[in-house]
Known about the structure:
Distance between the termini: 30 Å
Order of helices and strands: HHEEEHEEE
Shape: globular
Amino acid sequence: MKTxxxxxxxxRETAYAIHVFHGQDHLEKVYENALVHRLRKRGLDxxxxxxxxxxxxxxxxxxxxxxxxxxxxxxxxxxxSAKSLADEHAxxxxxxxxxxxxxxxxxxxxxxxTFQIKKYALGQLPRPNSPGGMVALFFxxxxxxxx
Length: 147
């Protein structure tokens, strides 16, 4: 099994190749299908439009998400085809990570002339002065490539 960093590298390389080949003028679904196809050709387990249940603090189901891709059950990939990434795109991915308790996610934008990818890692840290209290912490890594 590949490490999360190896998975991220494989997704980044594959997504960039798709951006170079197809450009930035397609709908998100075209890029999603291309990425699924190419990652599966690389031997990766890729679930497309993967359902994610959201629960309230008492365990009551309160909603559902559909993550664009779940790779090797350890990496969520959210795809966009927009002029640029926005804060709400990151918030969407962070919501998926929190709901699934999966630590790592990639946010990829194919819609810009410049290829955009951001990696998010969600972790848990103790909150100061609150025994047992937890606060979510995320790290983002951005990369921009000219196609």
